[in-house]
UniProtKB/TrEMBL annotation:
<feature type="domain" description="Galactose-1-phosphate uridyl transferase C-terminal">
    <location>
        <begin position="256"/>
        <end position="384"/>
    </location>
</feature>
<keyword id="KW-0299">Galactose metabolism</keyword>
<dbReference type="Pfam" id="PF02744">
    <property type="entry name" value="GalP_UDP_tr_C"/>
</dbReference>
<keyword id="KW-0479">Metal-binding</keyword>
<dbReference type="InterPro" id="IPR019779">
    <property type="entry name" value="GalP_UDPtransf1_His-AS"/>
</dbReference>
<dbReference type="InterPro" id="IPR036265">
    <property type="entry name" value="HIT-like_sf"/>
</dbReference>
<keyword id="KW-0119">Carbohydrate metabolism</keyword>
<dbReference type="Pfam" id="PF01087">
    <property type="entry name" value="GalP_UDP_transf"/>
</dbReference>
<feature type="domain" description="Galactose-1-phosphate uridyl transferase N-terminal">
    <location>
        <begin position="151"/>
        <end position="228"/>
    </location>
</feature>
<keyword id="KW-0548">Nucleotidyltransferase</keyword>
<protein>
    <recommendedName>
        <fullName>Galactose-1-phosphate uridylyltransferase</fullName>
        <ecNumber>2.7.7.12</ecNumber>
    </recommendedName>
</protein>
<dbReference type="InterPro" id="IPR001937">
    <property type="entry name" value="GalP_UDPtransf1"/>
</dbReference>
<keyword id="KW-0808">Transferase</keyword>
<comment type="pathway">
    <text>Carbohydrate metabolism; galactose metabolism.</text>
</comment>
<dbReference type="InterPro" id="IPR005849">
    <property type="entry name" value="GalP_Utransf_N"/>
</dbReference>
<dbReference type="InterPro" id="IPR005850">
    <property type="entry name" value="GalP_Utransf_C"/>
</dbReference>
<comment type="similarity">
    <text>Belongs to the galactose-1-phosphate uridylyltransferase type 1 family.</text>
</comment>
Amino acid sequence: MNIPEIRAEALGAGVVKRSTRMADGRELIYYDDPDTTLGPERAVDGRDPFARPETAIMRRDVLTGDWVSVAAARQNRAFLPPAELDPLAPQTPTNPSEIPSRYDVAVFENKSPSFGPALAGTDAAAGAVSAGADAPLGLDDLAAPGLGRTRISVGRCEVVCFSPEDSGSFGTQTRVRARTVIEAWADRTAALSALPGVEQVFPFENRGEAIGVTLAHPHGQIYAYPYITPRTMSLLSSIDREGPDVFARILEFERGSERVILEGEHWTAFVPFAARWPLEVHLMPHRHVPDLASTSTAERDELAPLYLRLLRGVDALYDTPTPYIAAWHQAPVHRGRDTARLHLQLTSPRRAADKLKYLAGSEAAMGAWIGDIPPETSAERLREAVASIAEVTE
């Protein structure tokens, strides 16, 4: 067996990055806490290598212009396994999981990705072209008209494990661990943005079965897309319409409102003026930064306890944990970086302790939203819940 090399690199906040490979060649990266109890060595992935799935093919919806990645390999992903077979836990003799060694934070390439493993300009991408897919030709080509258009779903999908524990979420981590995850997000944003054919990088966390989560392990994901997503294209159009300083004006407008939830030196959390979801919070930096990789050490240091307090406040609303999607919107890799500001959009369909908002006719079919709860009412409840949470110091 070839033993993969482990490359170590010091990052900010005392975090150490250790890069290696899994048995099938996928990239695996450990991010060690500054106060880690782990040594520098890592166990080798002892599983037999298996063939990775073919890169998916995207199809263009001619009526909307959207690209849909048809990734059939995702049908085989794990679905609510028992804790003893957690695929994100460190490997044991009875659990041949994805991560061979004990870890603090771990990031690895998804086994069943929606995008990748082929990258633009690689032999794997060329093979997909010879099999009938259109070659990737750049962003201008994406908007070209025509029925039956296909493209290779080049890019990368990664899993970010916040902890080796078998249950929890970002909000259940310590301040030190949260800071390590933020450092990992920033590091991976920079690395994925440099991959050929990648146009946008999206870190996110899905939490709760009501959202569709199939693993209880505390984790998130990062998608590196071969196009600018529809949501971000709409955002760029809004910037063109409203002006290049629109994010600065939004922040000033919201900070002067009754919708502010939590405020620090570098970040403000607020319920947006036109919130769609029963529970929706935006978290925005006070200065313009296009992505997490561009944040300063001081901004990352403050983000860790502030974000933890916000998430714990969300959970304090009810007696049981609240399902949510935590979406980190970042500027595209090659466009709008001077105007599209990094921000978190936290949304939940939970409109009461025992009620969820389901997207039915108007929202799902027409994109015409109807809000169930006035944003000011939601903000007041969230402020009270966050106020009940002590400052995060550990």
